[in-house]
Amino acid sequence: MLWDDTSATKTLGMRLNMAPTTRFATFGTARALAACALFVACVSAQGAPDEAVQFATVWRIRGDITAASASSGVTRPLRDGDAVRVGERVRAGPAGEAVLKTGDAGYVAVRPGAEFIPERFAAEGKPSDNVTLRLISGGLRVITGWIGQINRAGHRVVTSSATIGVRGTDHEPYVISAELAANLSQRAGTYDKVNRGGTTMEVDGKSLDIEPGKVGFVRATKPVKTRALMTLLLPVLLDKVPDFYVPGQFDAELDRLTQEADAESERRLEERRKAPPPSSAAPKAASPAATPVAAPAAAPPTTAAPLSPAACDATDIGRAWLRQLDDAIVRRDAESIVALFAEDVAVKANIRGGDGALKTVELSRDELAQSTVDAVSRLKNYKQRRPAIEGRPAGDASACARIAVRSVSIEQGKQAGKPYRFESLEEYVLERRDGKWLAIKAETTQR
């Protein structure tokens, strides 16, 4: 399936696992088949902030810090132990500082004069966990929790001139307004200093990786009248750390915490995953005679072994099905890939265009097959991994006839001689038909 977008014709048939900076032109990857599926929660999360969701609690505080509700406009002073919720506008006074402990075992230090909004946050120990912080002015110090490990593409700091992604990180984003820039004799724009791990600053499809000890900078957005001026707005590395980066009141504690941050967030993540849902009953013991969910990955994808309803482990079923899909893609076996999808499968791909907006494309099974055959023939050095997979019954769990599977997938390789790296969040609805697990619904959204 082909379509035109801003003067270039692109191929849809692919997995659509794409990093935020990847353009439509890279859409020819083999994962196209798996393009079929990504989690709706990723799309629905783009709606209005839900102030019922707690983002963090106040762990340390000094001076004047307030939080204003987006819905009611009511402003309240923050105190030690208070909750900060999604959508609230947090402001620090000229001498105010605070450290917020986030729900995924991370930390956000609020610097004097800073203003930011936690726009999105989900920390349930799932592949779809995500956080978006909109930094309006001033500085933060962000020590990532488990979201920065299991869904790096879902952890972002957004400013008026740049988007900052993370790689398991301790970093300090800072927004200097035009007025503050004049007072500090600095350039207006977004800065990011990395203490540990790494970050990526992204502007208009261009990105810059920042390593520990370095500071990235993006100028404040201005109207651009010529293409030559566009280069002035791209991210660059600074020669030295600007003078306005000074340690905060609680940085000595944070320096100690960051050394064990990854191990602590992993421990908290395992606790979160093992905790039963509030309304769930204690799990039943698996039957000793339960038959394996599916055949080994090397077996044809249509030979799933019989399944006892009492042994309906949706995550294991989903993992086995995805293994068959991934193996078929590695083998460039388009026929085996297509055989994993029902004839009436509903396929939807949410693709980010050059303007940053999501566009939705729907595919039939035949279109998916044709795109796949074309896409798999162009791949070289293909590698793929899934940091997280989860499944749940979709309907009557005792019948084990339909399940929903959610997975984060990261893949890379070469297409048409050019390297690519895609990351996506996928959702499949699998139904058991004639003893085989087939996808009847698939949705993918570019991350």
- The percent range for strand residues is 35-45%
Number of helices: 8
Number of strands: 25
Mean pLDDT across every amino acid position: 77
- Which spans have pLDDT < 50 for at least 5 consecutive residues? 1-48, 223-230, 279-310
Instruction: Classify the helix fraction into a percent range.
Output: 10-25%
| Shape by Cα distribution | globular
Protein structure class: alpha+beta
Q: Using the CA coordinates, give the radius of gyration.
A: 23 Å
The CATH topology assignment of the largest domain is Nuclear Transport Factor 2, Chain: A
Measured distance between first and last alpha carbons: 22 Å
CATH architecture of the largest domain: Roll
Domain module tally: 2
Specify the biggest β-sheet. Answer: 17 strands, mixed
Q: Assign the CATH class of the largest domain.
A: Alpha Beta
Brief summary:
Helices cover 16% and strands 40% of the residues. With 447 residues, it is of the alpha+beta class.
Topology:
Layout: E1 2-5, E2 8-11, H1 40-44, E3 54-62, E4 65-68, E5 75-77, E6 83-85, E7 89-92, E8 97-102, E9 107-110, E10 115-122, E11 130-143, H2 147-150, E12 155-158, E13 163-166, E14 170-176, H3 178-184, E15 189-196, E16 199-203, E17 206-210, E18 215-219, E19 236-237, H4 251-259, H5 261-274, H6 314-330, H7 334-338, E20 341-352, E21 358-363, H8 365-376, E22 379-393, E23 402-415, E24 418-433, E25 436-446
Parallel strand pairs: 11-12, 20-25
Antiparallel strand pairs: 1-2, 3-6, 3-8, 4-5, 4-7, 7-10, 8-9, 9-11, 10-11, 11-14, 12-13, 13-16, 14-15, 15-18, 16-17, 18-19, 20-21, 22-23, 23-24, 24-25
